[in-house]
Amino acid sequence: MISDSQRIVITGVGLAAPGGASTLAEFREQVLAGRSGISTLEMRYMGVHPAGLCDFPETKYRKKRENKRGTRAGCLGVYCTGEALTDAGIDFSQYRPERTGVYMGLTEHGTVETENEVYNISQYNYNVDYWTHHHNPRTVLNNPAGEITMTFGITGPHYSVGAACAAGNAALIQGCQMLRLDEVDLALCGGLSECTGSFGIFASFRAQGALAEHTDPTKASRPFDQERNGIVISEGGCVFVLERMDKAMARGAKIYAEIVGYAMNSDARDFVLPYGPRQAECIRLALDRAGLRSADIDLINTHATGTKQGDIEECRAIADVFADCENLRVNNTKSIIGHAMGAAGVLELAANLPAFTDGLAHPTINLDQLDSDCALPGLVVGKPEKLPRAETILNNSFGMVGINSTLIVKRVLAE
Hints:
By secondary structure, the chain is an alpha/beta fold.
């Protein structure tokens, strides 16, 4: 049996979600109500498109000039980290800054800053004298994690984890591993997305035929629906505080959940097309590592993004692994907040964590006509549903270039 010094628990959550939620309580209220966080954004060169935008107190932990010098991803990361530390009751009297690690998942970083600078100098006949000297530190991949360390005086390791849209889960996995290896005593892990600032990302998804469109932006994100037509791009952030179980219990910390299983693998097939059989292998590996059976999972948060083939492949994987699991419930958070890219997995996990307390599965919205290829038993649609049991949650996140991740968390019962 694994010792408490090797058991990893979540003790703090900080987030900024599309639609204005800037606390876990606000976010939970939003997803239980099925209230869309999608509005519109006028994108340079492309016009108006549905998008998920955040509204949070950006100057709570650092000044406006510091935000201006940094990046949007860094701003999101600093806010979410500050909230997570506060939520966990961490003031670094119990933990040393040099033994604290910061691991942030990113889908991409630097495109927003580069696009903006190219556009800016285009207004001056491409005279590079107008190019900002802040460009290089803004665009290095470790920038958002580094901005967090500078704000909070954390002197342990920091870096970004690049894993496409599986990056949030990957960062949590990294934190678990570093704690178990005794590389750090405290891990701040999460995912960040500033993708709504990049016309290149919007344009690329449109060129692929994968950018969602709808006359009503709140109905644009519609995974599993027969009329779905693509992804709604969102910004956002979520950071978790991870600790070893023994230290968390010794200081009387509030424990949201224990991370009991995880896995990552690769399709090794295509740049953009997902592959259900490999996703099923990833899910099974996570279950094996957690010492759980399919029937032990109570709630699955699906990755499904609203693309035709992507939704179908994941549904096939889930149907394969979880056949005849009568107590299982399945939902989708992207229907409410869109696709927050590197922040997707961690925001979606945060949206579902309170199920351990309130016993509810939040609904999938905008599902008016279910695609028969996505007809999963236990799919929660339209309104919250009481879970037959609320002890385990499985979170899927998959990404481009064939990367898959599955994370399993378990409710921690009071001793």
